[in-house]
Amino acid sequence: MLKENFLWGGALAANQCEGAYNEDGKGLSIMDIITAGDKDHPRQMTMDIKEDCYYPNHEAIDFYHRYEEDTDLFAQMGFKCLRVSIAWSRIFPHGDEEEPNQKGLAFYDRLFETLHQKGIEPVVTISHYEMPLELVKKYGGWRNRKLIDFYVHYAKTLFERYQGVVKYWMTFNEINSTIHIPAIAGVIIKADEDEKSIAYQALHHQFVASAKAVRLAHSIDSQNQVGCMVMTTVGYPQTPHPLDVAAAQNYLRDGTLFFCDVHVRGHYPAYFKSYGVKINVTKEDQEILSQGCVDYIGFSYYSSQVVSRNNNGEETQGNIVKGLKNPYLKASEWGWQIDPQGLSFLMKELYERYEKPLFIVENGLGYDDQLTEDGCIHDDYRIDYLRQHLDMMKKTVEAEHIDLMGYTAWGPIDIVSAGTGEMKKRYGFIYVDKDNQGNGTLKRIKKDSYYWYQKVIATNGEDLS
Prior knowledge:
Elements: E1 7-11, H1 14-17, H2 63-77, E2 81-85, H3 88-91, H4 102-117, E3 121-127, H5 133-139, H6 146-161, E4 168-172, H7 177-180, H8 195-220, E5 225-237, H9 242-265, H10 283-291, E6 296-307, E7 315-316, E8 323-324, H11 340-354, E9 358-362, H12 380-400, E10 404-410, E11 430-432, E12 444-446, H13 448-458
Parallel strand pairs: 1-2, 1-10, 2-3, 3-4, 4-5, 5-6, 6-9, 9-10
Antiparallel strand pairs: 7-8, 11-12
């Protein structure tokens, strides 16, 4: 049985849904200069807007102008919360200004007021792949220690503005992406540089910025709950060979647990020395990390991988990370292996290790949904995916007595894919009429999964049929 105040909802990122990329004083973000792509052709970062390129985030699904309609649809589904991010460059267009852009703040004033009117609690990610482009061009992004102060100033602006309005915060989205895709996380690394050391130095600056933000949030409002957000996946050993088992153990530790260790425990674990990277960590940094531990662990989970000691096997895709194909699992169109058991494994691992509340803030199935002749979307495959994961989530909570705060399905409405820039990689309960080239009316259409999730929320997860 899930707790009565369980936070059912969905999760969005400003850069993937808002559009209005140059309206009301907003500056360019790193995502505004990334072109469209697909699963066979990666997105490109152009560093400037080019006339002959299509940038899907510029309009996205126009949530900026349609948020009232969209939040109505969320409220009708019964959402208890909506995870959103704030576009940093909408508040500080260049990132290093002293004074915020009031028109940008006013938009989120309206959004949060609308959510509260509809009984929906905002859950806010402060930085979700939306760094102001000028911070990258002028300072090199997170590799520069100056970014800490810019971020803290931005966070302070939000905490003060939305005191009593927003209670749940997350500092960085999938902070481990800094290691895997540094450019998307706002880190510039040149071809002849030591990418690993620079990426970990940039990550360290984010850890310090996060810890400072946690302390600040608590000092401004003792009711604030601030969490980290880590991308998680499971790596199963390919064989019982001890070295395959060790490879899987390291995969979990280095890919997931390390990031939680610093956020939750407030210091670098001893095994970090084995990574072989040199970063500058001051005594003051260490004190800040120890004093800015998060209140809960937010995490994304979509799929699992197979790991071997020699990477011998067929490779498959996942959320940012790659692994080997598991012959016992089915996969999505994009090669993400469907594994609800992996969610249970992670929930147990995280709760046993940290004894902190957990929050599943991303989970869902990307699929090329097709409209039928009568204008409907029969997405039984999505319902089946979510049913399996929610059933496993409930059983794990009950069996292990885990403190789980909530569940926000990724992309409750179709949005631009962060990884590929496609629209046809759809996650939503609500279809948006737009294609990969930007054509379409943007009309919203409820899918079959909309009504299914509505029933799930109404019964607090008891009816998954």
